[in-house]
């Protein structure tokens, strides 16, 4: 018995020394840690009052949030709109300038121009490129929109604006998932967005969608952005260099999905979510095609790649490939932006943040590719 105990102790000591030595070697080599200090700790140090709030009603009464939608304005047709949108002024411009035509741009936060400097979003660039031709690109993009929201936008504004073309931007990062939830899917709390709906999967590979209460939304916010203790696995993977090396190797070997389920035992089956999302997205795309065809409006589609499966260079993710295949199936001639962009055109990947948007260079490159795509194909006056 003593020999077994001694052997076990020696094994633990040898393992600990190996892990310690490996970490020190990686530190000397400046190998990066995946997750720098969590934004949740920053919120805690700033004494975020929402972290100590026990109900959504209390948060609203204390004016910690502007109602259940925050800065997102409820809209019975679209689910929600963004309070800072310039849409109203653009619509008024088209109404008062009959010599101008317009392109109705449908999209999410990429189209909205999130993370770009003022006036540097890709739609802003397009407006400058086509200003001499008196074509206004009407930007209806709002963060969190899926094709179900964008279909609703199209139905609400195509008769009013009578656009000469429609430009639809599809983002592979979350559109498949967004299309599984209703139009009013997000709440904004302290400038962070939380989904109003919870997705789950069953053993029979069905997706269940459940609306969260206001208190549940608040608890989700607190779980994401307020201080909480990490498990040993989470700490190892995201806060050590050896863990970062292991995750990178597992990702390249295609094993990270299985390992992730072991580390996060409550995770949903993302393959089921993806497949059901493709089916839902196909239905909305068919409706968008039908709507534009019936009104004889040319439809342009751009496919925006996500970077979540990219390491050294930008690659087509599984979601991206699924959507690209879907577009071919529907005979939609889309602009594939993958070859026009690099990882440097995105905000630096940071696993403690969900910011996966373009920087100014990404918006600029995308605008140039879209301009060439539109000329002679979609726009009559190009």
Relevant terms:
globular; five-stranded parallel beta sheet; Rossmann fold; 15 helices; 382 residues; single chain
Explain the layout of strands and helices.
Elements: H1 2-28, H2 39-45, H3 56-61, E1 72-75, E2 79-82, H4 87-96, E3 101-106, H5 109-112, H6 122-129, E4 135-139, H7 147-161, E5 165-171, H8 175-178, E6 186-189, E7 192-195, E8 197-201, E9 207-211, H9 214-225, H10 232-239, H11 241-252, H12 256-263, H13 270-294, E10 299-304, H14 318-329, E11 334-336, H15 360-374
The CATH homologous superfamily of the domain at 72-180 and 275-374 is termed SGNH hydrolase
Q: Order of strands across the widest beta sheet?
A: 4-3-5-10-11
SSE run: HHHEEHEHHEHEHEEEEHHHHHEHEH
Count of extended strands: 11
CATH architecture of the domain at 72-180 and 275-374: 3-Layer(aba) Sandwich
Ranges where pLDDT stays below 50 over 5 or more residues in a row are 36-46
Computed CA radius of gyration, to the nearest angstrom = 24 Å
Q: How large is the count of helical segments?
A: 15
Q: How would you characterize this protein structure?
A:
The protein has about 375 residues and is an alpha/beta fold. It has a domain at about 70-180 and about 275-375: SGNH hydrolase (Rossmann fold, 3-Layer(aba) Sandwich). Helices cover about 45% and strands about 15% of the residues. It has 15 helices and eleven strands. The strands form four sheets. The chain has a five-stranded parallel β-sheet, sandwiched between helices. A hairpin with a 3-residue loop joins strand 1 and strand 2 (about 80). Helix 6 packs across helix 15 (about 360-375), helix 7 runs parallel beside helix 13 (about 270-295) and helix 10 (about 230-240) crosses helix 11 (about 240-250). It is globular. The N and C termini lie far apart (about 85 Å). About 35% of the residues are buried. Residues about 35-45 have low confidence and may be disordered.
């Amino acid at each position: 018995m003593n020999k077994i105990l001694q052997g076990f102790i020696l094994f633990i000591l040898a393992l600990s020394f190996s892990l310690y030595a490996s970490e020190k070697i990686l530190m000397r080599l400046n190998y990066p840690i995946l997750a720098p200090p969590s934004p949740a700790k920053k919120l805690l140090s700033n004494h975020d009052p929402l972290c100590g709030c026990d109900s959504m009603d209390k948060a609203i009464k204390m004016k910690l949030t502007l109602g259940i939608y925050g800065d997102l304005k409820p809209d019975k047709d679209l689910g929600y709109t963004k309070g800072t949108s310039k849409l109203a002024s653009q619509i008024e411009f088209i109404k008062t300038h009959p010599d101008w035509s317009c392109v109705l741009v449908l999209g999410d936060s990429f189209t909205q121009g999130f993370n770009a400097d003022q006036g540097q979003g890709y739609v802003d660039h397009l407006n400058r490129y086509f200003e001499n031709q008196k074509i206004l690109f009407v930007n209806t993009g709002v963060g969190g929109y899926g094709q179900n929201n964008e279909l609703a936008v199209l139905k609400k504004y195509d008769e009013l604006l009578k656009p000469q073309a429609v430009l639809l931007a599809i983002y592979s990062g979350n559109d498949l998932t967004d299309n599984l939830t209703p139009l009013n899917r997000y709440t904004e709390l302290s400038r962070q967005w939380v989904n109003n709906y919870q997705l789950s999967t069953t053993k029979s590979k069905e997706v269940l969608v459940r609306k969260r209460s206001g208190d549940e939304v608040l608890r989700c916010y607190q779980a994401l952005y307020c201080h909480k203790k990490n498990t040993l696995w989470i700490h190892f993977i995201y806060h050590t260099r050896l863990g970062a090396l292991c995750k990178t190797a597992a990702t390249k070997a295609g094993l990270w999905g299985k390992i992730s389920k072991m580390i996060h035992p409550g995770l949903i089956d993302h393959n089921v979510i993806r497949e059901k999302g493709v089916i839902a997205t196909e239905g909305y795309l068919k409706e968008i095609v039908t709507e534009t065809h019936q009104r004889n409006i040319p439809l342009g589609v751009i496919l925006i790649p996500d970077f979540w499966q990219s390491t050294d260079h930008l690659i087509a993710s599984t979601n991206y490939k699924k959507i690209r295949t879907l577009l071919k199936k529907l005979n939609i001639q889309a602009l594939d932006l993958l070859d026009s962009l690099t990882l440097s055109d995105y905000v630096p990947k940071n696993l403690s943040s969900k910011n996966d948007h373009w920087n100014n260079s990404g918006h600029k490159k995308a605008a140039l590719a879209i301009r060439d795509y539109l000329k002679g194909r979609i726009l009559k006056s190009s």
